[in-house]
């Protein structure tokens, strides 16, 4: 597993194999990595700390990288605790260290470390400021809302490295397989940064002014070569809310299997009618965050849900809420409902989508009453025609 950056930029991050959910909500199959780096020069800079869940291992990695030297700077690019929870401990260990951060990050210090006085140590940087370490000169760029307001990214012109904070991160432990990157990076992007497409585009514009050969994010593998080009290509699509892949995503909820059968029947019809790709997910059993990812990946979305307590099945309410808060847009959407005596789900889904920006709602919908019957296929065919048109 290659974590080489250069002779004088050392990876000191850690894999957290124990964590099962990131931010208390995103499922992790094998854990999460928190990246951190040390730049060894005349002066030494630590690029972010990590989550204190792995504090002992990080301190050991730091000690090994320092090889007896004392760090001069701790660059805090992002104050979220998965990166900053060891800031006070680093200050305690190195009382003369300068903590380099944005003014917005400085205001957050007291929120997390109310007992610690950082005033003699903090060095505020703003857009375009530089910091010379010797051969390496660090240039700072603000990246507000990628993913919090205080975020900065750091460009090292000597090594052509962009330290990108949460940008270009992914869920999971550290790995460097290109085929693996996009899937978990996409799920991470839309669920963590999806709301902030405009801000990510602003960061991409700034980054285009730098000659970047390596991206060092705070999660996931270090990106170089083809992997780096592919990551920038995908970020350009994702941040513009453009369609990455021609296809239909069907997300359904089902109580006794009948709405699920209708969703599967619709998937078959769509395939028969020539849909390039049909992806389908049962939101009652599968990861809803992967559902959010697929909703953004494809250009067309079908939501199928039962009516429940005179309203919409709660897991579908929740899923639509997630799409809303992640700025879901530029897509065509259709609905399928089930209801044994008073179907309401389509009406409510239409109402929930009424204020979505730039979403085309299909006029056609399908109503299933209880079990799927042959007579229902007429409506599903009509819906398939409209979603594919
Ligand atoms: Fe990886 Fe926004 O924290």
Share of β-strand residues: 15-25%
- Hetero groups bound? MU-OXO-diiron
Model regions low in confidence, pLDDT < 50 over at least 5 residues? none
Rg over CA atoms, rounded to whole Å, is: 24 Å
Can you give a write-up of this model?
There is one protein chain. α5 packs parallel to α7 (225-239), α6 (197-207) packs across α7 and α8 crosses α12 (377-388). This protein has a six-stranded mixed beta sheet with strand order 1-6-7-8-9-10. The protein has helices at 55-66, 81-84, 87-93, 103-112, 178-193, 197-207, 225-239, 258-272, 288-297, 314-325, 345-353, 377-388; strands at residues 9-11, 14-16, 21-22, 26-27, 32-34, 37-40, 44-47, 73-75, 98-101, 122-124, 130-132, 137-142, 152-156, 161-163, 214-216, 223-224, 245-252, 278-282, 298-308, 311-312, 331-338, 359-368. Helices cover 34% and strands 25% of the residues. A hairpin with a 6-residue loop joins β15 and β16. The chain has 389 residues and is α/β, with parallel strands linked by helices. The chain starts with 8 loop residues before the first strand and ends with a helix.
